[in-house]
Amino acid sequence: MNIAFFLTPKHEIVTLTESMTLRQAMEKMEYHKYSAVPVIDDEGRYQYTLSEGDVLWHIKDHMDLSLKNSEAVNINKIKRSRSIEAVSINEDIEVVLDLTRYQNFIPVVDDTGIFIGIIRRSDMMANHFEYEGIKKQKKLQLKWAEA
Fold first, then answer.
1. Per-residue burial over 80-110, b = 16 or more CB atoms within 10 Å of its CB, e = otherwise
2. Helix (H) or strand (E) run with residue 129 in it
3. How far is 79 from 75, CA to CA, in rounded Å?
4. Which strand ranges, in their side-by-side order, compose the sheet holding 7-9?
5. How many structural domains compose the chain?
6. Model-level pTM?
7. Phi, psi (rounded to 5 degrees) for 82
8. Within a domain: residue 96?
9. How large is the greatest C-alpha to C-alpha distance in the chain, in angstroms?
């Protein structure tokens, strides 16, 4: 199965840009109720994922930070606790399945490195359970047909 089947396109999700401030990122994450958001550059290339935890650790390490002076902090200055790499749209489904064990979503890029969307763990799980349900239903139908 091709991973494109599971892709949520870029225009349907929230992203941050490298030029955003900490305050802008916090407000966008709060408004959309996301705990992690992909960050892209001006050319549309995936750079990294900024998480709520990254923001909280930054605030802890800079206790003098206020909402007002968070406007002067670029999100590139925030240390990230995890490195979430993007996968190619041509990646094997098994690789993506393995990544979903550790990540809520997997960023996806095209052949030129442009960010095109994400694959959500929940979408892959829903597909798996739907597939397992269909298999069980067909087994039951076969048992009834044989009886």
1. beeebebbebebeeeebbebbeebebbbbbe
2. helix 121-146
3. 9
4. 7-9, 115-120, 105-109, 87-88
5. 1
6. 0.80
7. -135, 150
8. yes
9. 75
Structure tokens that stand for 90 in this block: 């041509």
Q: Specify the CATH number for the domain of residue 15.
A: 3.10.580.10
pLDDT digits (tens, 9 = 90+) for 39-91: 999 999 999 999 999 999 998 888 787 778 888 889 999 999 888 999 999 99
Give residue-wise pLDDT tens across range 92-134. Answer: 988 998 898 888 899 999 999 999 999 998 888 876 665 455 4
The verdict on residue 101 lying in a domain is yes
Domain that holds residue 19: 3-120
Which segments within the chain are labelled E, that is strand? Answer: 7-9, 16-17, 36-40, 46-51, 87-88, 105-109, 115-120
Q: Say if CB 32 and CB 15 are below 8 A apart.
A: no
19-37 pLDDT per residue, tens? 999 999 999 999 999 999 9
